[in-house]
C-alpha cells in the first residue's frame, strides 16, 4: 500500500511543512471529536509530514485495537485491508489522487467526497466491511492536497456482497476514468465491444437493471459481462476498476 501514500505529495509544497494544526484543522478535529461516532471512527492526515493530526477514539470500538502510534495509523489501516480487496483499494486511491492533481489549482474541492467500501480486518481476526469517506480539507497554491479527513463506518450489516464499490461526487470523474482506461490499449482490446459498451454505461451511473433495459437484455447477462470484464484481466487495470465504479449512495 506504499504506492497510495506516495501517489499524492509533490516534492515541494508552497506552504511551510508544519505538523502543528492550524486553527481550521483544530476546529475540524474538535468537531469530529464531539460528533457521536457509533460504529465509526475518523482521522485528519497531513501529507506534508505523513502524520496524523487527529484520530478519534472510535477506532478501538470498530477494529478492536488501537494502532501502535499516531504516525503509523494510516499504514496500519492499509495493512488490514483484505488481500482480495487491496489491489482495487490501492488503484482507486491512486486514480483519485491523479484526478485531483490534474484539476486546476483554483478549482474548489470544498464539497469533494470520495467514498469506497471494502473489507478491513478486526483484531479478532475476522473481516468487517467498512465505508471510507475522504474529504479534502486543504490544498496548496499548486493544487496539491495538504490535509484530508477520513471517516470509516462499519457497514457489515448493510452490505453482504464482497465487491469493492467506489463513488466520487464529481460529474467529470467518470469521463476521466474512461480516458485513463483507454490509454491502456492492451486492457481495452481485451474486452469485447459489448463489454466496452457495458463499461461506458456503468460509468454513466446506471445500475445493472438499467443497463439491461437500455441494451434490451437480461440483468443476468449484464452481470455476466461485468464479471467477465474482471476475469479477462490478469492484473489490476483501469478496466478492472470500471466494474467497481458506482454513482449510487452507499448504505
TrEMBL record:
Keywords of this entry: DNA-binding, Transcription, Transcription regulation
Domain HTH luxR-type: residue ranges: 184-249
InterPro entries: PAS-like_dom_sf (IPR035965), PAS_fold_3 (IPR013655), Sig_transdc_resp-reg_C-effctor (IPR016032), Tscrpt_reg_LuxR_C (IPR000792), WH-like_DNA-bd_sf (IPR036388)
CDD domains: LuxR_C_like
Name of the molecule in the record: HTH luxR-type domain-containing protein
Taxonomy of the source species: Bacteria, Pseudomonadati, Bacteroidota, Cytophagia, Cytophagales
Amino acid at each position: 500500500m506504499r504506492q497510495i501514500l506516495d501517489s499524492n505529495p509533490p516534492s515541494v509544497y508552497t506552504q511551510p511543512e508544519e505538523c502543528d494544526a492550524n486553527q481550521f484543522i483544530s476546529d475540524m478535529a474538535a468537531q469530529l471529536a464531539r460528533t457521536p461516532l457509533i460504529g465509526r471512527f475518523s482521522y485528519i492526515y497531513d501529507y506534508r509530514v505523513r502524520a496524523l493530526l487527529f484520530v478519534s477514539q472510535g477506532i478501538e470500538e470498530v477494529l478492536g485495537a488501537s494502532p501502535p502510534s499516531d504516525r503509523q495509523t494510516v499504514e496500519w489501516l492499509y495493512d488490514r485491508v483484505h488481500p482480495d480487496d487491496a489491489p482495487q483499494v490501492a488503484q482507486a486511491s491512486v486514480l483519485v489522487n491523479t484526478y485531483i492533481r490534474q484539476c486546476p489549482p483554483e478549482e474548489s474541492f470544498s464539497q469533494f467526497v470520495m467514498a469506497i467500501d471494502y473489507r478491513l480486518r478486526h483484531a479478532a481476526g475476522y473481516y468487517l466491511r467498512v465505508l471510507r469517506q475522504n474529504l479534502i480539507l486543504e490544498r496548496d497554491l499548486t493544487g496539491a492536497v495538504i490535509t484530508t479527513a477520513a471517516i470509516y463506518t462499519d457497514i457489515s450489516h448493510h452490505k453482504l456482497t464482497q465487491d469493492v464499490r467506489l463513488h466520487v461526487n464529481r460529474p467529470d470523474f467518470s469521463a476521466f476514468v474512461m480516458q485513463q482506461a483507454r490509454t491502456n490499449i492492451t486492457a481495452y482490446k481485451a474486452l469485447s465491444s459489448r463489454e466496452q459498451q457495458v463499461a461506458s454505461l456503468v460509468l454513466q451511473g446506471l445500475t445493472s437493471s438499467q443497463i439491461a433495459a437500455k441494451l434490451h437484455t437480461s440483468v443476468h447477462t449484464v452481470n455476466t459481462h461485468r464479471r467477465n470484464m474482471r476475469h479477462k484481466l490478469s492484473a489490476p487495470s483501469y478496466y478492472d476498476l470500471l466494474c467497481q465504479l458506482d454513482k449510487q449512495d452507499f448504505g
